[in-house]
Amino acid sequence: MQRYTAFGASLALTLISAIALLWSGWFLLPLLFFAGLSALGVYDVTQRSHSILRNYPVIGHMRFLFEGIRPEIRQYLIESDQDEEPFSRDERSLIYQRAKGAEDKRPFGTRARVYDSGYQWITHSVVPKHLSDHDFRVEIGGPDCRQPYRASLYNVSAMSFGALSGNAILALNTGAKMGGFAHDTGEGGISRYHRQGGGDLIYQVGSGYFGCRTAEGRFDPEAFARQAADPQVRMIELKLSQGAKPGHGGVLPASKISEEISEARGVPMGQDCVSPASHPEFSTPLELVRFIGRLRDLSEGKPVGMKMCIGHRREFMCIVKAMLETDIVPDFIVIDGKEGGTGAAPLEFANHMGMPLVEGLTFAHNTLRGAGLRHRLKLGASGKVVTAFDLAKMLALGADWANSARGFMFAIGCIQAQACHTNHCPVGVATQDKVRQRAIDVPDKAMRVKRFHENTLKALAEMTGAAGLSHPGDFLPHHLLMREKDREMVTGDEVYPYLPEGFLVRGEIDEFGYLGRWNRSSAASFDPI
User: Fold this and answer.
1) Reported pTM
2) 3-state secondary structure 302-365
3) Which of 80, 172, 251, 442 is 20 to 30 A from 196 (CA-CA)?
4) What is the CATH number of domain 137-413+445-516?
5) Residues near 493 by Cβ (< 8 Å), separated by ≥ 6?
6) pLDDT for position 8
């Protein structure tokens, strides 16, 4: 409760000054000063717009004071390369402005380092188009899907209840309901806060099978069918790995399992909750795709897909070969980049395990094209996709839609304190502390979620029109340009080309090394031939 110290001290000193005023009139000045601070503290804990002030009355204003002088120090931080946070200040500022519905224009031109190698941009047209509609949709559901879903091009990525607070989940889902987009539950199951919000859900099934597990932690088909039958559940996502810690399981200690977490996950109180590193229900590519087919049957034909960060490229090809052999094709695949966030991950995993999103998405897209399956499923992209440019880039490189986690976290007040694993999140987003999560005023933050989504898609519509296109799905690699070295400019299709349809099944030689891995892959096993 140290965060209330300044407020409490103000109240106490106000009382002391009032009593001392009986002895000397000189105490009128301190009385007025401390009474003013006390009134400010009362306002802070009752206002609804600023989570920091609700959790840190009086003292929280110091943050806004420092933010006020930030423009004077930003250039120094950029030039000295000391700004190494996962998201830049400019990115966070853009998200906050769009979430609040504030003006997001900037004076004095670009702040990007346009003369550095690695700078990227979208080409524009001298005959731009005006797009009056920004509610872009993609229909997800292949030939075997009986309940396809028209998803937004931008949705809330997987974040579990337990990692996020109940108020954070409720704000995200309520915002998704208001804006007409989907909210991925994360592997922690469907909580009461997901259901209360009423927004469209992507039910993620991880290796712990939370919400659809037996007492031994195995998959329970009857429990899954009950979850999937909920009209709020629009798609099912089988999680194979996540970008921040691929190949790494997890344990939620018994001490952190509340009644609400126990209810959502279907795990008992008083026992550690284990998420294995791999799924116990399958161990071969054929078993994996058959399990996906089983989930589709149990869900009465709702779209079923999988989420993964690309690791061994040959193993992804093994899964694609299993699709060809069984003719069981998921309705979608979400490629998660290693940039993806998490509440806690070993440093080596966070920094050096898993493939970045651009490379993983391009590889998956071209492998599916080479197998002749790309038209049968949709590809999603997740991993630090927070701006309209990020969205346009992912669409150009092969994605059909994108998900964002931290972008929407910032919309509900995350300040990137990186205290997610401590249960001491200063703004109540990543904590189970009931007092701390009170900082999130759900109606206010839900509206910010809606605005962030809407304003990002409006910006995407403007970029699309500026490029002379009629829909964001028309972006192709050649619309993306980049500088690889000083004075050396290349187009996206030179670096990330779309390879020919069916080239793998035809056995054509290619210069990117796909065919060699394809020949070493097998539908029967993840082991190399």
Assistant:
1) 0.87
2) CCEEEEECCCCHHHHHHHHHHHHHHCCCCCEEEEECCCCCCCCCCHHHHHHCCCCHHHHHHHHH
3) 251
4) 3.20.20.70
5) 476, 477, 478
6) 74
